[in-house]
Specification:
Blueprint (H helix, E strand, L loop, with lengths): L9 H23 L7 H7 L2 E5 L5 H17 L5 E5 L7 H17 L6 E6 L24 E6 H9 L6 H13 L1 H12 L3
Parallel strand pairs: 1-2
Antiparallel strand pairs: 2-4, 3-4
Helix pairs in contact: 1-7, 3-4
């Protein structure tokens, strides 16, 4: 769970480390603690989860780094998942959605269709047709923009032992609406602060 950063300049290292820490906090304090994804804790405990921080705010560089991260996962089949964190460049949710569309098409073009899939998280995530202040949006909100690269074979294996996985999103929506948006906004703010 380290940052692979051969090209990091000294002045950039602190924000990159902060980006990873914020995301780790979010995984532990939200995703795992509230069982938002029931497959996260086993991956975290087994060390099969990786954090990778984009070094650039440029779209082309980000996309190249996503493909490089898939290559890293190819070389490390024990990794089930990678959280590819994008601290700069897609702060606006619409820009992030554009990146997500291009990244998904790029994975397919690179032959990764059926190998990896992308899940999406952003601080301003808003589901289509849902009001921005609806607490259910927090199921996909994170301290920073993230492309979650999931190994499909590992996901399929995890799903074998889980009854009714289709109920997970609805359960999460009910949970977030019950707790309310203020609760999760404070939780995200807490994740942005050092542990």
């Amino acid at each position: 769970m380290t940052i692979e950063s051969p090209q990091v300049h000294p002045q950039a290292s602190t924000p990159l480390a902060d980006a990873q820490q914020q995301t780790e906090n979010w995984v532990r304090r939200f995703i795992v603690k509230y069982n938002i994804c029931p497959f996260a804790r086993p991956d975290l405990d087994a060390g099969n989860m990786r954090y990778c921080v984009a070094q650039s705010a440029e779209l082309e560089q980000i996309l190249m780094a996503v493909i490089e991260e898939c290559g890293h996962m190819d070389a490390h089949p024990e990794l089930s998942t990678s959280l590819f964190i994008i601290p700069q460049g897609v702060e606006q949710f619409d820009d992030y959605l554009d990146l997500l569309d291009i990244a998904t098409a790029l994975l397919e073009a690179q032959g990764y269709d059926g190998v990896y899939q992308l899940a999406s998280f952003h601080p301003d995530y808003c589901f289509d047709g849902v009001a921005p202040d609806d607490a259910s949006n927090y199921t996909n909100r994170a301290p920073l923009p993230v492309l979650h690269i999931i190994r499909e074979s590992a996901l399929a294996e995890a799903l074998k032992g889980y009854q009714d996985p289709e109920a997970i999103p609805e359960r999460n929506i009910q949970f977030t609406r019950r707790k309310g948006g203020n609760f999760f906004e404070l939780l995200l703010e807490g994740c942005r602060r050092p542990s």
